[in-house]
From TrEMBL:
Active site annotation, chain numbering: H79 (tele-phosphohistidine intermediate)
Residues recorded with modification Phosphohistidine: H79
UniProt name for this protein: PTS system IIA component
Cofactor: Mg(2+)
UniProt keyword annotations, A-Z: Magnesium, Metal-binding, Phosphotransferase system, Sugar transport, Transferase, Transport
The keyword Magnesium appears for this protein: yes
Key word Transferase present: yes
Binding positions (Mg(2+)): D82
GO BP term (any one): phosphoenolpyruvate-dependent sugar phosphotransferase system
PANTHER family found in the cross-reference section: PTS SYSTEM N,N'-DIACETYLCHITOBIOSE-SPECIFIC EIIA COMPONENT
Cofactor annotation comment: Binds 1 Mg(2+) ion per trimer.
InterPro entries assigned to the protein according to its UniProt record, in alphabetical order: PTS_IIA_lac/cel, PTS_IIA_lac/cel_sf
Amino acid sequence: MSEVNNMELIIFNIINYGGTAKSLSYEALAAAEKGDYDEADRLLKEADQNLLESHKVQTDLISKEAAGEKTEVSLLMVHAQDHLMTAIEAKSLIECMISLHKRIDQMSE
């Protein structure tokens, strides 16, 4: 596989894992809105696994660059990093929202 194709595969892995984590986080919020907190927790754990995989790919790139192997920063790479960053932020905010849903449900019981 050529170096360019390999880098594109690496970048698309970051995008895929980040996007999946974000989608799972929003699914968790939808489950919490229905009061299904077990499902919300399960989906958040699955989102964490996807974020972990994305971080592994990113960390490998960072380690290689720290060792002197430069990575070309393309628009696609920036897009991948944006996906990962927004997935992390969305999950963080959604966890807070789910916590609020739990508190509201407890107060209304």
